[in-house]
Write a structure and sequence with these properties.
Length: 83
Amino acid sequence: MASKITTPYDCIYALEEQRITKVGTANGPVDVLFAATVGGNEKQPEIQKLMVADFQYNRVYYRVTAENISVTDFYNIVCSILK
């Protein structure tokens, strides 16, 4: 989801703490808030049930969500949006 007005919230969730990750782009680093459900699949612990990333890039606010995805794959999706 994307919006030029504000972060496009589709649900409300609470984080114990907000840890911002700086992701490099051609225009400099972008602050990305990554969040995931606690615990993954027992057979595949790297797979998360739900992951969310909120960030602003080029004056557009983004919320990226994915289900049943690895942390690495989700990070790569966010990086591809920032290219």
